[in-house]
Design brief:
With 157 residues, the chain is of the alpha+beta class. The protein has helices at residues 4-23, 104-118, 126-156; strands spanning 29-33, 36-43, 49-58, 63-74, 77-83, 88-92, 99-103, 121-123. 42% of the residues lie in helices and 35% in strands. Strands 1, 2, 3, 4, 5 and 8 form a six-stranded mixed sheet that branches. Strands 6-7 form a two-stranded antiparallel sheet. A hairpin with a 4-residue loop joins strand 3 and strand 4. It is extended and about 70 Å long.
Length: 157
């Protein structure tokens, strides 16, 4: 898929993330994928969930995209949310010994820090770009509607 030097750059990114995860003794687990890697963590919440940071690398532009995949396990029902998720979970640890805190921003910072260190640039995933475009379009339609209503009501007065 990538040439020898390209494979080296991708491997360096993967190995640096793995080293940061191992060195910090974080609860994250890294899995190499064909296009980059997944960084997963069990979130001790009710219902329990697994948060995965899916990172895809584009060697030609030396860019990466990061997509959050959140799997919620609620009994026999399971749901998956894909996109960009920012949230914080605070609770007692399952064994009751200590307070537990998870912030999805911590994983984002970890990955962005390694990328910055190695000279990679982040691009927003397509799902985030589409959501932003839909939000802007909705805002323009709402603003247009408000202006039209103002013209109608001011025209009657």
């Amino acid at each position: 898929m990538w040439g020898a030097s390209g494979a080296d750059a991708v491997t360096a990114f993967q190995e640096r993330v793995a080293a940061v995860v191992a060195g910090a003794e974080t609860p994250y687990r890294m899995y190499r994928t064909e296009r980059g890697f997944d960084l997963s963590v069990d979130v001790h919440s009710r219902p329990p969930q697994v948060h995965t940071y899916r990172v895809e690398l584009s060697l030609a532009q030396r860019t990466f995209t990061m997509t959050d995949v959140v799997r919620v396990l609620n009994g026999v029902r399971r749901s998956v949310q894909v996109g960009r998720s920012r949230y914080v979970v605070m609770s007692a640890r399952p064994d009751g010994s200590d307070r537990y805190r998870f912030s999805s921003a911590d994983g984002h910072r970890l990955i962005r820090g390694v990328a910055r260190e190695l000279g990679w640039r982040e691009e927003r995933p397509t799902s985030v770009k589409l959501a932003r475009a839909a939000g802007i379009f909705g805002g323009v339609v709402a603003l247009g509607t408000l202006v039209a209503l103002a013209v109608v009501f001011l025209g009657r007065a």
